[in-house]
Write a structure and sequence with these properties.
The protein is of the alpha+beta class. 26% of the residues lie in helices and 23% in strands. The strands form two sheets. The protein has a five-stranded antiparallel sheet, with no helix packed on it. Strands 5-6 form a two-stranded antiparallel sheet. Helix 2 packs across helix 3. The longest helix has 19 residues. The radius of gyration is 19 Å and the shape is elongated.
């Protein structure tokens, strides 16, 4: 079983630039709202990531699970690289799994950590957690996802209070093919 991820290094670049966002909301002629638009970009990306259960900006996360069998399907995707895998051995000592034991795989929507040929997972102390630290996020964001981010932030820019959401929106339609289940 996987536990909720903790972002340890936040995204430093967004899939939609400030210039693109300002152009979309017709605010390119002034800088008064730049801080607000930047906040809306990050907020929209965060909402889209949670909606799709996929990271669209590069960031580092730490996730924990109960057993090595959980590695067949990671809760975070896409995984760019695995920084470390740590576990508590049967003697109670924290160990870092050697990279020679495993391969990280990602096809964009699904990510996994698999044993290399001839390797075995080490024994862990009962009731301990395995910790995976990984860099996740899309190298290239699909156009539909960028469009959805722009739609979401435009709604926040133009309507600065809460409004009831419709049952199925353009936002949902754009993202439905990029959503992954857990």
């Amino acid at each position: 079983m996987w536990y909720p991820a903790l972002v340890t290094v936040a995204a430093t670049a967004e899939p939609v630039s400030l210039v693109e966002a300002k152009r979309h909301v017709h605010a390119e002629d002034f800088a008064d709202d730049d801080a607000q638009v930047s906040l809306l970009i990050a907020s929209a990306r965060n909402h889209v990531e949670k909606y799709c259960n996929t990271r669209f900006a590069t960031q580092t996360v730490v996730v924990k699970c109960d057993c090595f069998g959980d590695m067949a399907r990671l809760p975070e995707a896409p995984v760019q690289s695995v920084t470390s895998i740590t576990y508590v051995d049967t003697d109670g000592a924290t160990q870092t799994l050697a990279t020679s034991v495993y391969d990280a795989r990602s096809d964009g929507l699904e990510s996994s950590i698999m044993l290399k040929y001839g390797q075995t997972w080490p024994a862990i102390q009962p009731k301990s957690r395995i910790t995976v630290t990984a860099v996740v996020g899309s190298a290239e964001v699909p156009a539909a996802v960028k469009h959805a981010i722009l739609l979401f932030l435009a709604g926040g820019y133009e309507m600065r209070d809460n409004a009831a959401a419709a049952a199925w929106t353009t936002f949902d339609s754009l993202l439905s093919n990029h959503r992954r289940g857990i």
